[in-house]
Amino acid sequence: MTTSPTVNDPAWSELAQRALACCADLAACTEVPGQITRTFLSAPMHGAHARLDVWAADLGLDTQVDAAGNWRATRRSPRPDARTLVIGSHLDTVPNAGAYDGVLGVVLGLSLLEALRATPLPYHVEVVGFSEEEGVRFGVPFIGSRALIGTADGLLQVTDAQGKTVAQAITDYGLDVGTLGDAQLSGDVLGYLELHIEQGPVLEAEARPLGLVEAIAGQSRLSLTFTGKANHAGTTPMRLRRDALTGASAFVLAAETLAQNTPGLVATVGSLIVLPGAGNVIPGEVQLTLDLRHAQDEVRREALARLLAQAGQIAEERGLSWTSELRMEELATPMNPALTALLEQALRAEGHSAAAVVSGAGHDAMLLGQVWPAAMLFLRSPGGLSHHPDEAVLLPDVEAALQVGTRFLRLLAEEAR
Ligand code: GLV
Ligand code: MN
Ligand code: MN
Questions:
Q1: Does ligand 1 lie within 6 Å of residue 216's CB atom?
Q2: What is the distance in A from the centroid of ligand 2 to the CA of 253?
């Protein structure tokens, strides 16, 4: 495409199809054949980077992978005082994921540059494929975006399930952990734009292809352990047991009840490790995760305090001991009003509603938004489904997102002139 397409131009469809084909291509880079599972700095991430390199080379972009494993492609503006607009999302996935969470936002960054290939821009554009947003491998999310804002160093000694540190994972991937500081975004940053699937049902229910994100809910993630006493399942009477799993189960239900009774609160126990894990042994230890989110930090914090108090009470009643560790807390993040107003203008100019939505999912924009102006555009999720292999996106919605994104970049160019 030599000039950027006009509104009903079939070139939008071609561009959207190329983006979806690229997502399908990236889906082939997986740790588990037959699924899409691509965690932080796993071997298949090399394949994902190589595939993106091909498209970036086509666009004449310089690419590199920084020491945190973020894939970065830069289009430089000839203007000497140019600032940088960052467009991105993440390339890691949850286990058995869909093909679009994160990946689509990275790919659409390239699509937007393709659409504006022949249009000079008064700002540099850096497209970033963040290495880690999901928190799957190390239990701590946003390692990639933390590196861009210069706060990843504190995570280097965190270990994964195999006992490997983040620092070792970086080295094993072939990167130089000593240059982690260079991953920090330097220079004058104009802002951050992230395009992402909604991952929820709201846009579909409202028959809207796109949504303007006004804020991202805050979240707390914890690891908890309940410890009782492993013993023989046949010989130990019920009244003499100290079963860690029944205690953990009471906690799981307490979390569900609290969230059901607190408007806007969501609480999830997504992982349980039961030890020793045999059918004829009373569970002696259970390790579990808790993920708690709300758009208001006060509500989330109060809920967390109540749940921890309940964990203590459950443990006491059942003769268990328990520990908890806060693995991560991110505050609710409003998007930048000025950049969001520009995105709203772009939505309206392309004939879309600009009604705002709150994101219950976390995004790299939470981290970049702490330092630079950030704005997010959602694409409708068919069936409201995400973190699932059937996650989908509609081709016309991708076209619409490209039209709005391109309009946004043009409006930003006018402002930056
Ligand atoms: C990221 O997908 C999250 O858990 O919100
Ligand atoms: Mn996700
Ligand atoms: Mn995501």
A1: no
A2: 24
